[in-house]
Amino acid sequence: MPSATMNAQEVRAVWTSERGSMAKETAENRWAKIIQGSIDDIGETAAAADVDCQKRAESIAIQIALKDIKKGIEQNEPLTPLRDDGKVDIQEWNKKLAAIGECSWINCPWLFGECYMYRSIQRILNSSKHWQNYDVFKRQKDASFVKSRAAVEELASRYMQIVTDTRLAQNESKEVAKKLLFIEMTEIALWGNATDLSLLANLTLEDLQNLQGREAIQKSQRNIVDNDTDDVWAYLQRTAGQASRQIDIVLDNASFEFFTDVLYAAYLLEAGISTSVRLHTKEFPWFVSDVIPSDVESLFKHLDSSECFPGREYLDQLIPRLRKFFQSGAITTTSDPFWTMPFSFHEMPSKAPALFKELQNSYLVIFKGDLNYRKLTRDGLWPHTTTYEKALGPLGKESGVKILALRTNKSDVCVGVPTQSKVDALNEEAPSGAWIRNGKYAVVSFNEGQ
C-alpha cells in the first residue's frame, strides 16, 4: 500500500490496465460507446434535408475516421502520435505521448488516454471544412437538460424565494442563517448532476433561521467524505473587506449542472461574497458534457422555452436577473487552451504560467466535478488519508492559489479523508471502492495555498 508520506512524483497515476479500477471499466466499456454515439450523431445531422451535398459527403469521411478510433479501442491498438490538424497544441500532445512511452488504449494512463480520445475526435473535425465548429455532444446535452425540468423549476422557486429575500440580506443578526444558506447553495453546486435533488436539505427561509436548518444541513452532509465547508466560510468571512473579490469557477458539465453553477455565481454576487465571477469553459467539446462557449446561450435559450420548462412563475423572474449579471459584466466567461490539454494541473505553473498567475490573483478558484479533481490530484493512487494540500502538489502549499474543489466521487482517486478508521467505515458501507466511484459520495475540499 502506498505511504501517506509519498510526494506527488512518487504516487503512481491510475492506468486503464489496473485490475478492478474504474479506469479499466471505463476504457473497456464506455469509450467505444462514446465514439459510436459521435458517429451516430454525425450521421443524423448529415441526413437532415437542409444539409448541402459537400457537408454530407464530408460527413462520410468523418464517420470512417471515427470508426477507426472505435476499432482501435476495441482491439486495444497502440496509441500513436496525433496527425497535424493546424492547431499548435498537437506537438505538446505528441511530446507527452513520447514521454509516457509504449502504451495502448487498455494499457495507458487513464487521464492521458481519455483526454487523447477527445482530442482525437476534435482533430478529425478540425481537419474538415464544414464540421470544424460542430458539437457532437450537443444533442445529449440538450436532452439531459430537458429531462431535468422538475429540478430546474424547483431551484428557480427556491432561489427567488430564499436567496433574494431581503429579510435575510439586511438583518445582521442572521449570520448563522447566512452561513447555512452558503452551505446549501454550495451543496446545490456540489450535487449539480443529481437532478432529483435527493441529497439536499431543501431549506425554507424559516428553516435557515432556526435549529431545523442546522439539523437538515448536518443530515445532508453525511456523504461528504472530506468536508472543508467551515474552512471556506471562515476564509470568506476573514477576507470580506477586500475591495476586489473575483471568484473563478472552472466548470464541469453543461445542462442542469451548468444551471446550478450559474445560480451559484449569482448567489455569490447577491450575497456580497464576490464582486465578480469568471466562468471557465472548454474551447471545444470535451468529455461529452463539459461546458463550451456555445452552451452559455444554449442555457438561456432552453430556460426561455415554455415548451422545455412550462412552469414559468419563478423562471420568468429569475432569467432576467441572471441575464443582467452577464450583460453587466458581473459574470463573464473565458476559455484557456490548458483546460483541454493532456496535463494534470500540477504542470500548470510550467505549461500555462499566465493562467497560473491569473488564478493566484483570484479571490477563490472553484473547480467543479470529477475530471478537474483528477487533474488537481494528478489522478494519483494516493492513500485516501493524504491531505488535500499535499495531493495538490505545486498548487498546494505556498502556491498562492485559493482552491475549492466541489466534486462527486466518480473515479479512482480520493484524498482528504480525515482518518483511516473513516476510510475503513466507508469501505464497509460501500465495499469495493464504491464510495469513490458511484457518485453518491463527494468532497468539498479547500486549500488556501499558504
Automatic annotation (TrEMBL):
Q: Name one GO molecular function term.
A: metal ion binding
GO CC terms for this protein? nucleus
Segments forming domain Damage-control phosphatase ARMT1-like metal-binding = 26-424
Reaction(s) the record says it catalyses: beta-D-fructose 1-phosphate + H2O = D-fructose + phosphate; beta-D-fructose 6-phosphate = dihydroxyacetone + D-glyceraldehyde 3-phosphate
Q: Which InterPro entries match?
A: ARMT-1-like_metal-bd_sf, ARMT1, ARMT1-like_metal-bd
- Enzyme nomenclature, EC number: 3.1.3.-
| Record comment regarding domains | Subfamily III proteins have a conserved RTxK motif about 40-50 residues from the C-terminus; the threonine may be replaced by serine or cysteine.
The protein's name in its UniProt record: Sugar phosphate phosphatase
